[in-house]
């Protein structure tokens, strides 16, 4: 099982992940670069979409609506939340770049079409700080479990140089009410400066899965199950976009008991 998906910068679509290619049930994920004045489209009769403008700016046409000026960031390391759009199934949208170097993430998962489309603006997103010391990181909830969606949970995290993240190691691969929820997860990694990398380990209690990878700028790490901590080397800064989905839309996790002690230290 190869959990590291390399970015393809020779194509406008840097990353394409389907449930079939990932070998799981729920998450689809695309990173696409849209040139100035170019348009991409999306339609899926059975999947909801969270479109995140990672950097750049777009105009969106949806039914009779036109949403303009979506996205203001120059890059993902700006201290600004992104703009995002929620699209239910069976809605055709067109996305046109109105600035150069526009990069978008298209996150999808199964849905029935309960909720209407909406533009999720930066001021609606909660920003929090997690951890202390060299385990501190900065979190923006784009589409949290409390927001209106059927399957997707989306969050982005910036982690400073020489810090750990998603740590102490935690997992969410079994359904225990109020304790743990089963969620697939994607880590889309960005690094500054962009020649750097981060280390990520994915492992289970019995070590039947135990992979350590070095993810470079633009790579994706798949987390089908198991613990999945990240470490950022000195001199580099980390950004990652997390996409989660599973049979129950709830983010409950269990820490690795071997390392949970540090939460009380």
From TrEMBL:
InterPro entries: Deoxy-glucuronate_isom_IolB (IPR024203), KduI/IolB_isomerase (IPR021120), RmlC-like_jellyroll (IPR014710), RmlC_Cupin_sf (IPR011051). Keywords: Isomerase. One of its GO terms (molecular function) is glucuronate isomerase activity. SUPFAM superfamilies: RmlC-like cupins. GO terms for biological process: inositol catabolic process. Its EC number is 5.3.1.30. This is 5-deoxy-glucuronate isomerase. It comes from Silvanigrella paludirubra.
């Amino acid at each position: 099982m190869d959990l590291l998906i390399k970015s393809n910068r020779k194509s406008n679509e840097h990353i394409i992940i389907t449930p079939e290619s990932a070998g799981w049930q729920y998450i689809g994920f695309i990173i696409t670069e849209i040139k100035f004045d170019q348009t991409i489209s999306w339609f899926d009769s059975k999947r909801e979409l969270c479109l995140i403008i990672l950097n750049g700016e777009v105009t969106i046409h949806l039914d009779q609506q036109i949403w303009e000026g979506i996205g203001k960031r120059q890059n993902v390391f700006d201290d600004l939340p992104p703009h995002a759009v929620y699209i239910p199934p069976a809605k055709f949208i067109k996305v046109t770049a109105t600035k150069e170097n526009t990069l978008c993430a298209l996150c999808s998962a199964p849905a029935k079409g309960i909720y209407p489309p909406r533009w999720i603006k930066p001021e609606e997103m909660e920003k929090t700080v997690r951890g202390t010391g060299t385990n501190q990181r900065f979190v923006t909830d784009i589409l949290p479990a409390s927001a209106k969606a059927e399957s997707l949970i989306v969050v982005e995290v910036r982690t400073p140089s020489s810090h750990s993240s998603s740590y102490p190691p935690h997992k969410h691969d079994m359904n225990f009410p109020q304790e743990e929820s089963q969620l697939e997860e994607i880590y889309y990694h960005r690094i500054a400066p962009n020649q750097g990398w981060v280390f990520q380990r994915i492992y289970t209690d019995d070590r039947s899965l135990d992979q350590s990878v070095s993810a470079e700028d633009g790579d994706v790490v798949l987390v089908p199950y198991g613990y999945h901590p990240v470490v950022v080397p000195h001199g580099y800064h980390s950004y990652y976009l997390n996409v989660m989905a599973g049979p129950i839309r709830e983010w409950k996790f269990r820490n690795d008991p071997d390392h949970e002690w540090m939460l009380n230290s």
